[in-house]
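PROTEIN DESIGN WORKSHEET
SECTION A - STRUCTURE
LENGTH: 254
TOKENS:
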């Protein structure tokens, strides 16, 4: 079976995911700081070698982007490595959107919805912890009930260090103690537990409205809080799996 390359271009990183039909094969995530793409090329080639894949094994590539200014750069890069033309997903290409989804919806949010509905059913609450933390409510009829957005964990930390000269720059991870006893511990505690508290709050809100609701947690920072997500499902691949579902739907012309 031929393989497909699904590219998730976000504000801070690019994910390159490989699928064979519906089956997820592998993925690599690269921070957007390599303007020459030399590091990216090396990383991708290593990923292919580890999975015994060659460029000739791929039949198509699709790009889901929230950074349009980099689209052409990504297309040229994929062409140079895989000899593939990369299609750019436009929500206008979707013949049928889930009920309640507006035409200006971001491709990542639409992918979350499609992935959650396909793999977990409805009703469902999606917590996508990325550059922006998104809580997405899907109702019993697979309709978009609504969303709530807040700054992501990294953005929250950066807002403190940017506005306050003496505060250090930190990496995001679970603090050893819930109550901080110095500046660094206090910052880590605030960002970590405010995110966990927000998740638990919206899980409670969703449960009150839909007793049978499930919650799935995904996104780049989902791994950081996975120990404290309670009964929620941890699926860090939800977004790219949703993107692949959209790719398959477009291929079928549905």
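SECTION B - SEQUENCE
RESIDUE ASSIGNMENT:
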């Amino acid at each position: 079976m031929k393989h497909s390359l699904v590219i998730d271009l976000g504000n801070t990183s690019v994910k390159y995911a490989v699928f064979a039909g519906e089956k997820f094969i592998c993925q690599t995530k690269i921070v957007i700081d390599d303007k020459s793409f030399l590091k990216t090329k090396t990383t991708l080639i290593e990923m292919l070698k580890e999975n015994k894949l060659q460029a000739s094994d791929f039949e198509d590539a699709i790009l889901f982007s929230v950074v349009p200014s980099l689209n052409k750069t990504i297309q040229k890069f994929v062409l140079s490595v895989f000899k593939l033309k990369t299609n750019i997903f436009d929500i206008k290409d979707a013949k049928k959107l889930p009920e309640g989804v507006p035409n200006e919806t971001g491709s990542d949010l639409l992918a979350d919805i499609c992935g959650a509905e396909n793999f977990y059913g409805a009703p469902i609450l999606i917590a996508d912890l990325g550059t922006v933390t998104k809580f997405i409510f899907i109702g019993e009829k697979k309709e978009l009930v609504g969303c709530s957005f807040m700054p992501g964990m990294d953005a929250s930390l950066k807002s403190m260090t940017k506005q306050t000269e003496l505060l250090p720059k930190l990496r995001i991870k679970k603090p050893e103690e819930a109550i901080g006893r110095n500046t660094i511990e206090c910052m880590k505690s605030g960002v970590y537990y405010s995110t966990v508290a927000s998740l638990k709050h919206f899980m409670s809100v969703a449960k009150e409205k839909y007793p049978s609701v499930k919650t799935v947690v995904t996104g780049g920072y989902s791994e950081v809080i996975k120990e404290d997500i309670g009964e929620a499902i941890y699926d860090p691949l939800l977004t790219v799996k949703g993107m692949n579902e959209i790719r398959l739907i477009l291929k079928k012309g549905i």
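SECTION C - NOTES
Strands lie at 3-9, 13-20, 23-31, 58-65, 86-88, 124-129, 132-138, 144-151, 214-218, 233-234.
The helical segments are 38-50, 71-82, 107-120, 153-163, 183-209, 222-225, 238-252.
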